[in-house]
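Recall the central idea of this unit: under ordinary conditions, the amino acid sequence of a chain determines the structure it adopts. In this exercise we apply that idea directly, starting from the sequence alone.
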Amino acid sequence: MALEQKQTPAARSGASRVMAILDALASADPAVFPDGLSVADVSRLLGREKSVVSRQLKSLLETGMVARRDSGRYELSWRLFALAVRAGDQRLTKVAAPLLLRLTETVRERTYLSVLSDGEVLTVLSEGSRRSIEAVNWVGRTIPVHRSSSGMALVMDYEDEHILDMVRRGGDRVSDREAREFLDQVREARRRGYTVANRIFDPELMGIGAPVRDFTGQIKAAVNISGPAFRIEPHIQAFGGHLLASVRALQASLCSDVRPGADPGDL
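Accordingly, the structure predicted from this sequence is:
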């Protein structure tokens, strides 16, 4: 019965009103509202009575979804951002799993989904090729950024000096020449659209990677194909095409329920 009550029009309407307030706070231009939104600001943006908006903001404040500054103005809370990140990470792995399987079946090499974690590449998902000789399952383990095709993909949008600094501060000792060689590979990947790591992690392995972007265009993760160099090297261009197609499908799935620019009043 409780589940049925959650689906009533009144409950849906209440949830929509709450989401509209959160959307209004998230959409506020910091140049216009540097200190957050007042009750009057939210009321005007949504076309609602101030007393109603005030009660709703008070409830959101009690749940920790919004924060109130000393000035009395409201903004989204860090708790909400933390929840959003956790939800996004769960959605990423859930959506990526079948796409990784399909890519592995196509190229017949192991595939990985990785993210940046404390300046290193953390593998969060992997799909095996079921071949007798293949790259290892690296889920839950990290490697320096400059040692993998995923690392190249994850830093592709960074400024060149930031990339050099990150590599130099990595876990293993890297010379200035090695750092600049890595930067040259990232620059080439920007032109090509995908990265190629030729025996930089292991003398017998080759990897091909591509960044995964969220609806804002920011790099969220990376997908890569890794396997014996003698099998991958003759097919780099073809594998790169399959990889980019899989990444585009993953990005489309991640953005399928996001409507940038939606009018909060329509929620």
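The first strand starts at residue 66 and ends at 68.
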